[in-house]
Amino acid sequence: MADPSLRSPSGTPLRSPLRSPDTTLPFLREEVRRMWEEGKAKPLPDDLLSPLPTKRTRTYSATARAQAGPVFMGVCKNFSRSQGHGFIQPSDGGEEIFVHISDIEGEYVPVEGDEVTYKVCKIPPKNLKVQAVEVKITHLNPGTKHETWSGQIVSL
After folding, report:
1. Which residues pair with 105 in a beta bridge?
2. Element (H or E) spanning 142, and its range?
3. Nearest-CA neighbor of 108 among 83, 79, 132?
4. 26: cis peptide before it, omega within 30°?
5. Which end of the chain has a smaller Cβ tally under 10 Å, C or N?
6. Number of other CB atoms surrounding residue 81 within 10 Å
């Protein structure tokens, strides 16, 4: 319990909470509870982490290794802006390489057929697969509509 002689700036005595403070925002918690009771949504587990490292969550050492690595060329096989990821087909053949939206550099959202350059970074925990980082579009696929990150459609 708090010292009874301690007072808040408004003059009311300070007291310890009876339970630990809730760290979630009450209006969001209430909205999810209401939607769950109405059958519109199921409760989600707290703090699900993505198994794929994004530009924000990649470690410094993994970033340094990727930056020091060679630059590869490939063609965008597909990319979904709404899902936030896509795949690149390497020019030398081989398995498709995953690319996250945070690793795309440049003004345009990649579309199928765009030629790109990229570096690779291993995906933990086993480091058996790689993902593309520092992806830059070098040649836009002619005859297709391209979208900028701000949402403007450009026909080339």
Report:
1. 136
2. none
3. 79
4. no
5. N
6. 15
Which residues make Cβ contacts (< 8 Å) with residue 4, sequence separation at least 6?
13
The candidate with the shortest Cα–Cα distance to 133, out of 54, 61, 76, is: 54
Task: Determine the Cα–Cα distance for residues 132 and 135; give it in Å rounded to an integer.
Answer: 7
C-alpha 93: how far from chain center: 27
Q: What CA–CA distance (Å, rounded) separates 124 from 129?
A: 8
Q: What is the mean pLDDT of residues 132-138?
A: 94
Spatial separation of the C-alpha atoms in residues 21 and 36, rounded to whole Å: 23
| Both tokens assigned to 52 | 């794929």
Whole-structure pTM over 0.90, yes or no?
Answer: no
Instruction: Write down the pLDDT at residue 89.
Output: 96
Res 95: pLDDT: 93
Of 133, 135, 123, 102, which is closest to residue 52 (Cα–Cα)? 123
